[in-house]
Design brief:
- With about 260 residues, the protein is α/β, with parallel strands linked by helices.
- The chain has two domains: about 5-110 and about 220-255, Rossmann fold (3-Layer(aba) Sandwich); about 115-215, Dihydrodipicolinate Reductase, domain 2 (2-Layer Sandwich).
- Helix content is about 30%, strand content about 25%.
- Strands 2-1-3-4-5-11 form a six-stranded parallel β-sheet, sandwiched between helices.
- The longest helix has 17 residues, at about 115-130.
- The chain starts with 10 loop residues before the first strand and ends in a 6-residue tail after the last strand.
- Bound molecules: NADP nicotinamide-adenine-dinucleotide phosphate.
């Protein structure tokens, strides 16, 4: 009979008890992992002792919580992370340094769906091509549920970064809160209403025509399955310390491997 000492069930602790943390819990639970879900700690930060025996931490909390969460978890002995939370760019360097200093690895992405990886490459290609045509202007519109903490979404910011990197006519993005759109900026608009799990539209408005590319999430399942694939990747073998993009999980022998649905 198996004893507790022989139990090899992998333990995952999910930090963040919102809709996405719960979707990830379902995806990892379906893979036979033991799951704990933790919300915002009453004492301001998580107790490192709470991470004893945890094989992997998934962060699905709030941007401003990520650095403190990772610090508490590495202090508690965790060396594998999937960081799905968005809007923690100001702390990115500190998180990366902390991970490297403690020999820990993390897969981090603002969107863990395979479709988002393909979509980003399509957008980059369209931006590069239209930047060579006269009079084409890119824009991004994203829709999410009422109550989503950040705006623009992490995915929209990532898409904007990719467009700006290949479009010499624009050097920053702007939102309606910045006032009238200025020449040389990329317009990014976020709509927050209802229960929308996430839709991103990237358009290129040209003389007499418009190109539009759309990524529509029908539920949180694709992203949650992507997080589960990242967890599998981290647990499969030791990975180098620091931050890894989700592309590293999908890219096998130069091909994109789509994770099995949970
Ligand atoms: N990468 C992806 O594929 C993907 C997909 C979907 C969502 N996301 C991102 O994942 C995050 C969570 O999404 P969501 O829709 O579930 O957001 P949410 O509704 O805001 O839920 C986040 C939960 O985390 C809690 N929290 C705050 N600080 C915490 C901490 N230190 N430890 C543990 N929990 C903490 C929040 O509590 P309070 O309400 O008290 O702050 C809240 O209950 C967001 O950043 C979202 O943008 C990423």
């Amino acid at each position: 009979m198996a004893t507790d000492a022989e139990d090899t069930t992998m333990q995952a602790l999910i930090l963040g008890d919102g809709p996405f943390g719960r979707a990830v819990a379902d995806a990892l639970g379906a893979r036979g992992m033991a799951i704990r879900l933790a919300g915002r700690p009453a004492a301001g930060g998580h107790d490192p002792a709470a991470f004893a025996g945890v094989d992997v931490v998934v962060d699905a909390s709030r941007g401003e919580s990520v650095l403190g969460n990772v610090a508490a978890a590495v202090e508690g002995g965790v060396r594998r992370f999937a960081i799905a939370t968005t809007a923690w760019e100001p702390d990115r360097r500190a998180v990366a340094e902390l991970l490297r200093a403690r020999g820990a690895s993390a897969v981090a992405a603002s969107n863990f769906s395979p479709g988002a990886v393909v979509f980003a490459q399509l957008v980059e290609m369209a931006a590069r091509l239209t930047a060579r045509l006269p009079g084409y202007e890119p824009y991004i519109v994203e829709w999410h549920r009422h109550g989503k903490a950040d705006r623009p979404s992490g995915t929209a910011r990532d898409l904007a970064r990719r467009i700006l990197a290949v479009d010499p006519a624009r050097d920053r993005f702007s939102t309606p809160a910045d006032g009238p759109a200025e020449t040389g900026t990329l317009e990014v608009v976020g709509v927050r209403a209802g229960t929308n799990p996430g839709r991103h539209l990237v358009g290129f408005d040209g003389p007499g025509e418009t190109i539009e590319l759309t990524l529509t999430a029908r539920d949180r399942g694709a992203c949650a399955s992507g997080v589960a694939a990242a967890v599998d990747w981290l647990l499969a073998e030791p990975r180098s310390a620091g931050l890894h993009p989700f592309e590293a999980v999908l890219e096998v022998d130069g091909r994109l491997e789509v994770p099995a649905a949970s």
